[in-house]
Design goal:
The protein has two domains: 64 residues; 48 residues. Helix content is 91%, strand content 0%.
């Protein structure tokens, strides 16, 4: 027959075994989390490399066949025309703003003369 002391020792041993097992599982869990983070980091690095290589391939294809058949002169002419139109629009806007500025300056001068 087991004495009360023997029962307590048995329970203590069981609880110690359970505590050891819990700590062992926690340590394993921490180790697995670290491995997971390392793998995720490697995955991010590889994805970045893949994206960079994809962009490099895309750029090299564009250099070989720019705009799929449109030659460089046609593209330059198109850009020149677009640039000239933009410059023309901006000059027109500058003229309009200059006129508006002159009108406002004359109003300010008129108001200043009236109040002097």
């Amino acid at each position: 027959m087991m004495t009360r002391r023997m029962v307590m020792d048995y329970k203590d041993n069981q609880s110690m075994d359970l505590a050891d097992e819990i700590y062992s599982i926690k340590d394993t869990n921490i180790m697995l989390k670290k491995q997971l983070n390392d793998e995720r980091e490697r995955s991010k690095i590889l994805m970045t490399k893949v994206q960079k290589l994809s962009e490099d391939i895309k750029k090299s294809k564009e250099l070989i066949m720019p705009n799929k058949g449109v030659n460089a002169r046609e593209l330059a002419k198109k850009r020149d025309i677009e640039t000239e139109e933009l410059i023309k629009d901006l000059r027109k806007r500058v003229q309009d703003l200059t006129k508006a500025n002159n009108k406002l300056n004359s109003k300010v001068t008129t108001i200043a003369i009236i109040y002097i």
